[in-house]
């Protein structure tokens, strides 16, 4: 159960990053932090980060940081995947090689 919540934290952090990028695009378009669209997206990004941080602290009460933290590296996998689907960003072959190395590293670290 703890690892499921830890994974939800990683998904929350990754989603927050996508929302931050969307708020940055909205800011660029409107030119103002006070634009309702920019403020709306930024609010949800910050709220998600806040909730995720509280959940992460709870996770760290239950398991060692050395066991939990490798899961955070999954954000390096999830954020670019999300940016592809939600922002239309593209990948190169090196990205997939890097993702494979990250996943292998996480697997090794969690089994140690």
Write a brief caption for the model.
By secondary structure, this protein is mainly alpha-helical. The protein has 5 helices and no strands.
What does this structure look like?
This protein is mainly α. It has 5 helices and no strands. Helix 1 runs antiparallel to helix 2, helix 1 (2-30) crosses helix 4 (75-87) and helix 3 runs antiparallel to helix 5 (93-111). The longest helix is centred in the first third of the chain and has 29 residues, at 2-30.
Give me some keywords for this one.
flat; about 85% helix; about 110 residues; 5 helices; mainly alpha
Distance between the ends: 19 Å
The helix tally amounts to 5
Largest sheet: none
> What structural class do helix, strand and pairing data support?
mainly alpha
The tally of beta strands, per DSSP, is 0
DSSP helix fraction: over 70%
Average per-residue pLDDT, rounded, comes to 92
Strand content: under 5%
Shape: flat
What is the succession of H and E elements?
Answer: HHHHH
Query: Radius of gyration from the CA trace?
Result: 16 Å
**Poorly predicted segments:** none
Topology of this structure?
Blueprint: H1 2-30, H2 36-62, H3 65-72, H4 75-87, H5 93-111
């Amino acid at each position: 159960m703890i690892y499921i919540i830890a994974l939800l934290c990683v998904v929350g952090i990754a989603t927050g990053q996508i929302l931050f990028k969307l708020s940055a695009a909205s800011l660029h378009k409107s030119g103002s932090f006070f634009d309702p669209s920019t403020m709306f997206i930024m609010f949800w990004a910050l709220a998600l980060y806040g909730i995720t941080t509280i959940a992460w602290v709870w996770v760290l009460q239950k398991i060692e940081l050395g066991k939990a933290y490798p899961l955070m590296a999954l954000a390096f996998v999830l954020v670019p995947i999300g940016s592809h689907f939600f922002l239309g960003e593209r990948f190169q072959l090196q990205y997939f090689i890097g993702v494979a190395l990250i996943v292998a590293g996480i697997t090794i670290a969690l089994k140690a």
